[in-house]
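Reviewers asked in the last cycle whether our approach scales beyond single polypeptides. To address this, we selected a multi-component target totalling 1174 residues and predicted its structure end to end. The input consisted of the following lines:
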Amino acid sequence: MPDARRSLARWARSPVVVAAGAVALTAGVAGVLLALGGYDPWAAASAAAVGAFGSPEAVLSITAVRAVPLVLTGLGVTLAFRAGTWNIGAEGQLYAGAVAGVWVGLVGGGLPGWVLVPVLLGAACVGGALWASVPILMKLRLGVSEVITSLLMSFVAINLAAYMVHGPLQEPRGVFPQTAPIAEAARLPALVPGTRLHVGALIALALAAALWWFLRETRFGFQVRAVGASRTAAAVAGRIDADRVMLFAFLTSGALAGLAGGVQVAGVTYALYEGLSPGWGYTAIAVALLAGLHPLGVLVTGLLFGALDAGAAAMQREAAVPAVWATAVQALVILAVLALGRAQRHLRAEVVRV
Amino acid sequence: MTRVLARLERIERRFGAVQALASADLEVRAGEVHAVLGENGAGKSTLLGVLGGMLRPDAGAYAIGGEPVNLDGPRDAWARGIGLVHQHFMLVPALTVLENLALGRRQHTRGLSIDYGRVAAEVSTLMDETGLVVPLDERVEGLSVGVKQRVEILKTLLRAPVLVALDEPTAALAPAEIVSLFGLLRQLASAGRGVVLVAHKIDEVLGVADRVTVLRRGRTVLSEPRDRVDATRLVKAMVGGEPPSAALVGAARAPGFPDGPPDRPRGPVIATLEDVVVRDESGRASLDHASLAVHRGEIVGVAGIEGSGQRELALVLAGRRRPDGGEASVPSGVGFVPQDRTAEALIGDFDLVENVALAMHADARVASGARMRWAAAREQAEDVRSRFGVVSPDVDVPARELSGGNQQRLVVGREMLLAKDLLVAENPARGLDVSATAFVHAELRRVTREEGGPGVLLVSNDLDEALALSDRLFVMTRGRLVPVPEGQRTREGVGALMLGGAGASGAPDANA
Amino acid sequence: MSDAALVLFLEASVRLGVPLALAALGEAITERSGVINIGLEGSLIAGALGGALASLALGSGEAGVLAGAGAGLVVALVFAAFSVGLGTDQIITGTAITLGGLGFTGAVYQASFGAGGAALTLPTLPALRIPVLADIPWIGTALFAQAPTAYLAYLLAPALWYFLFRTPWGLELRACGEHPDAARAAGVRVLRVRLAATLFGGALAGLAGAHLALAHAGTFAENMSAGRGFIAIAVVALGRWNPMLVLIAALFFGAAAALQFLLQAVGLDLPYQFFLALPYVVTLAALAGRVGRARAPAALALPWPKPS
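The resulting structure, written as structure tokens, was:
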């Protein structure tokens, strides 16, 4: 009997169970709320599903394309959370990266593609990391919570990007608040010809695998996990420099978010404009949490939320449900993950004390 | 026949899968000091929690003044005059003593605001009656442990004048403070109150108690007037089973149970501190020009009231903290058993393999270059598990699922793997039952006896532990190390030094 | 710069500072009890929408304000159910509540008024002029010719100060935020206190949101809260969790936001986005400058009871 309880506890410990449960719970609650709002939940769901997965075109050109920035920012948020730091400002870091990337794309026209693309993406990483440096340094040097500061930086970044597209980086005719298209050589080639799916998807995949390997197999990755699990024990028992670890994790997190901005500019829009991101930096939090802060899980949940994004547009068209419901659903997902996580802990506490 | 104030019968209480109380009985009479003894984990604190209304029993009877009661929280208990003095002080550090004493009691108000004048008057009366004096306008966070305890006792007496139960009150006190505490308890009892004292040190308790109850594994196994029991009978009741060996009795009683080292030369010096200064955030020197040399093969014991600088001493020697002044020369092969194992030594969510890797990730046995060698780490974990008797189904369970004793075995074993030169241990037996304590002590002795074994720095709040294990003994007082001369190696002698009294000799030379 | 421009600046400072003050005063109480409500932004925007809808439906600004407070309270209730009731992580829960608040208010708004977002005009809260006091030169109209919610803020600050530092309930609340175990041992019902404090903070934030919609903008727009909830949290820290100082800090931030009027009057022609970003930059600078001296309640953001 103790064995059965222990296996039950182990199974319940699995993040996949929590994720599946959270999705089911969210779907249920969302359905009820939609019904209360006078909408037809089934029509909404089927419209969304068709919109996201109904055709190869939908899957590749919409869902997967929308998943790319979600996966990248999701990986960034995952890394930061794993190290015990709260990066709530990924949205701002994304814009900072987009600004840096688009600038390179505009001025670097003379360079060949195999140079320009890495430089663009690198600049995007640097932009994001730079934006992330303010909150993490304020935390480490001054003891200010990075939650509030990273959020505030997001608002600054969005205004900065707006300023750029209304001013210095505005397209030459000065009519629309957007940049001119970036040089041809700066653009990411298509991954699947005929669709909008670009090489950025491969980059996202590769980075997910890399982060997974980093956390699992490397010494520094282990230190990141230790600091995130218990800063005190890591410092005392592990003699780990927690500040250094948190700095690295947060800056890399910012770089990943910045990369998402750069990839979006170089792979999809080829320009920068206001509202480039419909809140990917915040959705990334739901992506990361639903994945149980597991890098490979982020691939799955990123796709899921990309589907939600794609489906929301279809849902608005077909079932007249405002697309902004997708934001509300993200919130429900996070709450569901949190609640189930608590239930899981409660279950764990019941396990036989050895 | 003295009046029975409270009677608990056949009390049961479980927490999750752990049966903390299986059938516990306790009868408290007015005018008596009633000691409750038991190993760590026997259920004493739980029983006290039921007595004080903090915990509801799953089964059993609780009667106060002859009337059956069903307490609904501590306020209910206070209303009937029963109060607890907790082991870990329940005082709000940021508030003043007066505010802490006024907290939660809504009697003295003038309009909407608290009438601190009336609270102070009430407290003064009580202070006069008991002789307990505390500074009312100081913040609790600035007070010493002894004074905080007095505040805690006053707080309880203010609300609960009839029966006072103290949970392990002597742990953080110097011997002289323990004496005055016991004097106070006797005084409270003779004023007609009931006093319950929970402890696990037999000798302390025999001096002050009128009646003794022993708990073992959640059951009351003995409850007799003081003059009908002796130490051996008590130990037998506490530990159960076979008549305990002399060593076990010693471990339970342990006033200066000398199992000193045979005469053998100690090894070369492996760690030195010279005039080391460590400052805290406010700039005060917590370690004030401390000098010490530790040799291989010896156990250097450091006793002292908590907060005298031992923590900083341990951290510096273990290489976890650089001194702000002076020189520290610390070897690379250092193991550290910190005092708070759940917060500082282990990560509860990590399994045993990862917890072993936590300490050893810089060690070539577990990592090479930038990569972890998980297979090797697993082997190390299995090794620790078997050699140090860590009871767990396998090495993949999270550390939080182990009992306290097994967690400590894991920590000690892991740190011994690293301690080729020096092992620093802070209160390594804290909260452990007798067998786990004996194990830890035996390991500390064994490792120093080995050929080429490390030196050990043992920081201990438990005077008996320090006296029993140390080859050389020091007292830490106000950031300074004071050596204890051979002739003064008794509880009284060391106790005097702990409170800053003069030693037999003058200026200490800690490098002798 | 003319006198009129300065007076305009002062009036704008107070007008912009009031919603911050209300939200921050409420959050100060919440944080003193040990809970950090990152979801304050959600309460704020819910209050704005609730206030807008109620004032339209019932035709009165006053009803709108009450409805706004109610909406903010409901949002805070959801937050408290998870963070205080279940003991989930306060930061993440708060983030979810903010996302949810923004999402759901957007959804309800679009459902009620269509996705086109034609600007609403709402029955507003008229300014209430206090005779005599409003005649004081310079600051008279700025301080005493504002919407009634401003006066609420002026009265709340000293009232909350008295509550925290002089009454037994305030003492108990502070104990919950510093050392909840000690509070419990003293018989305080910690979870209930934290719940009440969180609801109070949410109601005030909702009120602030209603003020935004009804007294300040005269309309509702999606995301009109623009991060004020987060700035309010920063204001609480800058005001050292002391209601009187929090009020002053909030007015100071109102001035920072009103700076655009002053600078434009002086003739400084900076890009419009600069002014939009200014409040956030000023907040960051203030946090960087004043930190280390104020100490937060010791148990803030830590789940209680401790998870096993």
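The mean pLDDT of chain C is 88. We regard this as preliminary and will revisit it once experimental data from Aim 1 are available.
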